[in-house]
């Protein structure tokens, strides 16, 4: 089959969805299919006119054929790429513009403060109508990257989606080397990722041998640095800044466990990458996607977002490398159900 994988993209902001698109192209090619990728405009969401212009640009993008040779199937991932027109569009749905959906209450509270509340409500109604039309009329089959995302599609628009979990994107880098005494956490350092939970938890950890390493960059970096200084944790918590893929997987390969506890995450590739590396994952009850993969006490821990509760589990892991190994082995076994073979099989199956 001849595939085109389409997702929207903001320049200089290569994230998980764009990496997922490139990985899918690679995996389709490995299995004998012809495949290529196309990044379409997304634009700045906080300027509604700019956001809508991106929808129009995607809508006007011709993906039916290239140089007279038809494209058999198109896979779209992130808004507004599902606006492209193709008779067999498979949408592997990641998320819509979340400020107009599940993040609305927090966002509109801020908008009201700056006098834009009423206008935003009108814009929200327009965007919901446009998204529902496109997802109903342009998409042949709707997949979701997690049950959490499928639930959002059901809540807003009554769309039914088949859950298809993305596998690790760089499996060639995944390995297990050791269970060194540190907890590793990596993400963009922004408020919804709640990286401060690990810093706060380290205040309450009793073990003197366990450390924490936090990788990534973003708006929260300075605040985290200030917290570490304020609590006197400079010898126990390290901020690495930006890491390459190789450096991320090196940490995952060597750490005792991975903490990934964002709020209402779409999916969370970090969790499945850690599981495939035989490492237990600590996540939170309100973390969304990761809670579908992590089973409390079996392959990791699912805890309330309470630093003291998290600290107790970190102490358990600090005191028992065998516990980390046991949980990690089960995590690895559970992760094998998520594979590229399964993904490609679904995208190539008769519709």
Distance between the termini: 14 Å
Annotation field: number of helices: 12
Task: Please give the domain count.
Answer: 2
CATH topology heading of the largest domain: Rossmann fold
Mean pLDDT: 94
- Estimated structural class: alpha/beta
Describe the strand arrangement of the main beta sheet, using strand numbers. Answer: 2-1-5-6-7-8
Describe this structure in words.
- With 351 residues, the protein is α/β, with parallel strands linked by helices.
- It has two domains: 2-164, Rossmann fold (3-Layer(aba) Sandwich); 171-335, Rossmann fold.
- The protein has helices at residues 16-30, 48-59, 104-113, 117-137, 147-155, 196-204, 221-230, 245-254, 269-276, 307-319, 321-335, 340-348; strands spanning 2-9, 34-41, 65-66, 69-70, 73-76, 89-93, 141-144, 162-163, 182-186, 211-215, 237-241, 257-259, 281-284, 300-303.
- Helix 9 (269-276) packs across helix 11.
- It is globular and about 65 Å long.
Short description:
It is globular, with a radius of gyration of 21 Å. It contains twelve helices and 14 strands.
Question: What is the fold's blueprint, element by element?
Answer:
Elements: E1 2-9, H1 16-30, E2 34-41, H2 48-59, E3 65-66, E4 69-70, E5 73-76, E6 89-93, H3 104-113, H4 117-137, E7 141-144, H5 147-155, E8 162-163, E9 182-186, H6 196-204, E10 211-215, H7 221-230, E11 237-241, H8 245-254, E12 257-259, H9 269-276, E13 281-284, E14 300-303, H10 307-319, H11 321-335, H12 340-348
Parallel strand pairs: 1-2, 1-5, 5-6, 6-7, 7-8, 9-10, 9-12, 10-11, 12-13, 13-14
Antiparallel strand pairs: 3-4
